[in-house]
Amino acid sequence: MRRWLTRSGRALAGAALPMLLALTGAGIALPSPALARPVTLEDLLQREGVGQAAFDPAGRWVVVERQGPYASGVRFDLEGFNDIARTTIWAAPVQGAEPLAPLFPSETDAGYKLGPISPDGLHVAVYRLKGDAWRLGVASFADRTVRWFDIVPELSLFGRALQWRTATELLVLTTPDGDLPRPLRFRNEAARKLPARWAASRTGAGAHTVFGSGRYLDARPQAPPRSLLSLDLAQGRTTVLAQGDFTDLELSPGGRRIALLEGAEDIRLTAGTPLQGDYGLATRRQRLRILDLATQALTAPAAGLDLLPLLAWSPQGDDLLIYGRRDGEPWTSGALLRLDVSDQRLVPAAPGLAVHLDLRPELVRAGWVADNLVVFGRRAAGGAAAWFRVTAHGPRPATGIGLPASAGVPSRLDRIPIALPDSSPAAPAAGRLLAARKGVTLRAVRLEGGAEQLVLAERSLARRLALLNAGSRDIDAPDIRRIVHAGPGGETLSSWLLLPHARPAQGSGPSPW
């Protein structure tokens, strides 16, 4: 560690600290002291990783986002999405002995992201970022090819912008102007737009942005509407189903209806009302729309409710689970509701439960696991937050259905790797769970120093699909110690001290710090 600090300087060490914490925070096993060496900045830059992973519905394939060395990324201006620029898509058959291999040939100047798998398990939607071009593709497991479309799909952070309707039809929310989705352009938008505005200002032309307030609240520039497309893969044809400022979609079982969230009016600032906290971070209200694909009718139930990105259909497709608040009220005054789509009647969904509500950003977690309506919350009388199953006799602990214990999971239950207990493999029990389906799991298991192997386990059998960071097995992982102390305002803060495991004895040499 001293070698790194003296060669690279304190500025580089400080900049790399978040990466170092990510490298060591997952419990790296230590090699023997005789072989150990200190971690260096180059180790961090060459760090490989793994992103999303999934099994196809038929259980024949596992597909993984494999992240190359951090330094291999094709761009570094996406901040939280920089990993896309170093990601390729790999797959392996569940049966047999084949290791992970590229699902399709990757371009050296592009990065990729994994989308959902088709219901028949033959294809998977994928995204490609090449320069400032973001495109949708569909890859085939059988022949390991990919077909790209001239479609710019949205990228939703907490909802859904892409879903399979059938094995050959995709529902896609597209960007309104062909530009990058907002999550990808958010951090570099100023760098892209300011040069043109400075040039306009230099010639005396206007270079300004209008934001209204009061009765001029809607005076800001309004983006063109997004399109909800149907992509027919067999015909190679797209059809516009609806247009609006849609931010989320959810197809009902059976495929007749699509629930949509649509951005509506701006939220007016009110004196005495906090900008965050119980009122959340959103600057616009979200309204519910339901598109009936049989009649093409777009209706607006749940009038007057501002919704969170939770859209969950019951297994029969006749009820929709939502969380909403009345306009002007805090999210803590909202409720988890069931909407009967036949008569548009709203009823409380989880009597006797107080839903656990995150506020940065605003999220609740609820949905169906098989026929079980499950909610992350606490009994109204108090107690710790946990998963509960809603029954006719009140809430019951949701044990035995494989849900994680904490709230640190996405709001959509289909994004949680649920492992049913009757299918949990005997080995290996350790490691980070990446994906699961009945009878099989994929885990990332740490090895000596910092290497990591991807292990596919089925019942009592396990095989290694890939080895990552093989050159890290001789690293002496730092000893990370938490130090709790008071901040400038008396608040309790946590700082982290990184010490080498093999510290020299007192008087045996200079301190590495």
How helix-rich are the residues, as a percent range? under 10%
Question: Count the helices. How many?
Answer: 4
What ranges have pLDDT less than 50 throughout 5 or more consecutive residues?
1-34, 421-428, 507-513
Task: Write down how many β-strands occur, each being a DSSP E stretch of 2 or more residues.
Answer: 36
Strand content: 35-45%
Please outline the major beta sheet.
5 strands, antiparallel
**Shape assignment:** globular
Please state the average pLDDT score: 84
**What structural class should be given to the helix and strand makeup?**
mainly beta
- Write down the Rg: 25 Å
**Ends: how far apart?**
8 Å
How would you describe the overall organization of this protein?
It contains 4 helices and 36 strands. Helices cover 9% and strands 40% of the residues. The strands form 10 sheets. Strands 18, 19, 20, 21 and 22 form a 5-stranded antiparallel sheet that branches. Strands 23, 26, 27, 28 and 29 form a 5-stranded antiparallel sheet that branches. It has a 4-stranded antiparallel sheet with strand order 2-3-4-5, with no helix packed on it. It is globular and about 65 Å long. The N terminus and C terminus are likely disordered. It is mainly beta and 513 residues long. Strand 21 and strand 22 form a beta hairpin.
In summary, what is this structure?
This protein has helices at 2-24, 41-45, 182-185, 189-202; strands at residues 37-38, 49-55, 61-67, 87-93, 101-102, 110-117, 123-130, 133-140, 145-149, 162-166, 169-174, 226-232, 237-244, 246-251, 257-266, 284-292, 297-299, 305-307, 312-313, 319-326, 335-340, 345-348, 353-355, 358-359, 362-363, 366-369, 372-379, 386-391, 394-397, 432-437, 440-446, 452-458, 461-468, 475-476, 479-486, 492-499.
